[in-house]
Amino acid sequence: MTGKRALALMIGITTGALAPASARADTVTDWNDYASTAIVATASQPPPAAVLSFAMVQGAVYDAVEGISRDHRTYLAEPPGARRSDSKDAAAATAAFRVLVGLFPVQTATLQARYDASLATVPDGPAKPRGVADGESAAATMLAARANDGRFGPFTAPVGTAPGQYRPTPPLFAPDPAPWVGNVRPFLVPDVALLRTAPPNPLTSRAYARDFNEIKAVGALHSTVRTPDQTDAAIFWQDHAFALWNRIFRTLAASLSLDDNARLFAMTNLAAADAAIGCWNNKYRWNAWRPITAIREADADGNPLTVADPVWTPLFDPATPVASPPALVTPPFPEYPSGHNCAAGAIVRTLQYFFGTDRVGFTVKSNKSGTTRTFPRLSDALIENINARVWAGIHFRTADLAGARLGQKVANYLQHQLEPIRRSPQ
Question: Which domains does the chain carry?
């Protein structure tokens, strides 16, 4: 997106999205909303699994639409026989519907009703069935490409006993609901090993003590240094990460064309999916303990600059009020790197590439906090995400920064994919 059109879109988003947006829906944004309901609300997939489903849906929608437009490179393949005159609305709806049914066959009846209603809005004529065929092809290609990719594969999460090693955390001592995510084949990055992070800070280092003492003070349940706004931000970002981010994308999409929306949703969700894969692969490589364990067991860490508090409790505790269930707890998987910030790093950098600027503002409501927050720039959301996990008492700052860097590395791979097709002058 370049030139005067990009500038007009950027100005419209920057000025308009700072107030609650009345988003202009199209077939792509409608089916992103339906996908969010199917993946998050109905199937209850946890964030690192949900984003893989979002990536499959949005990647197929993009290929269906772009196969007709032929302005940018497709993600997997152009639907064979697609023509510029084919219905993009029929193609987008069909691609999303078929991938969702492939992922969640028990939801077929609900999804079929939405699909029938969606197709009913497409004018009859030869463009409609051709668009349906394009969408069918894109969905079948996606489902075939992601068959046997490692999703839901067997994985035994290690449980540590030594200082620094992760072990389940109170009060639930729950297992990771999706420990297999790190073994899934990436969508964009050639090999997950390319996303390897540096190790966490050594327990005896000053850097570790600095992180430790920061979160011990500001992340405590009854912290005297955390402000009310910081408390709100921490809870705000604990909404289901990809339901929240896709709501943000739908807000940003209000000023865009159907073609641009298809590319926006594909780019962001594909990048976030690889960020989740890389993040979980690193989590179980380093298997680092959470702050609640680190602070309660600091007598064993060998660092003279840390002091144990055997009853320390983070803000993320069932005692903290929230607007919607479930209650807040420390997430049930290793601490390093931060999953939310792997995603946020990938998404923010991808949005900056897409719009060609950081000066894109938005306002969005969180179902977890019940509050609305405004971000004048894309990077403001990433900065707050990094801080929020410290304020929540669940991530050392180094884990947040490492996660953001991992996500940005994924986005850098995406920068040279889904590019405009440059044609020779006639």
Answer: 3-155+178-414 (1.10.606.20)
